[in-house]
Amino acid sequence: MPICRTLRLLLALSSCMGLAGAAIAADVSRLQGAWRLQAGEFIDGDGAVVDYASRKLAGTKVLADGHFAFTTTSDGAFWAGGSGTYDGDAARYVETPLMASYPLENGGSYEFRYTLEGDTWTLERWQDGRRVEREVWQRMP
Fold first, then answer.
1. Which of 36, 38, 52, 106 has the lowest CB atom count within 10 Å?
2. What is the pLDDT of residue 23?
3. Global pTM?
4. Which of 103, 100, 104, 107 is nearest to 84 (CA)?
5. Is the pLDDT of residue 50 over 90?
6. pLDDT the model gives residue 8
């Protein structure tokens, strides 16, 4: 699916959600926009580190007015998608999916530590002192 068509779909989905978003902290509002997945890794069910490149994962995420939507493909085929609300502060980003193609964990909220350096956004999710997910996103023009 062409990127422009994907972005239009994601923006329509996020704007049609019709949900009142929580107030977004000023620091998190700088994350608004469209993002392309550059790299990442996660811990699988067996405790092994899985590099996104090994799964040929690609993704797009759109953040607007306290709402997010994303789609991820694996080798060009749909892999995962979701949308919901987000909140956070200068170092913490929390996604609360309201719709997802996967079973929700952790009570349905995912908290990440993040850094934003220029147009590169890096997220890390930790559980029990271990990093279980890391993603690097690039802002799209």
1. 106
2. 40
3. 0.80
4. 100
5. yes
6. 45
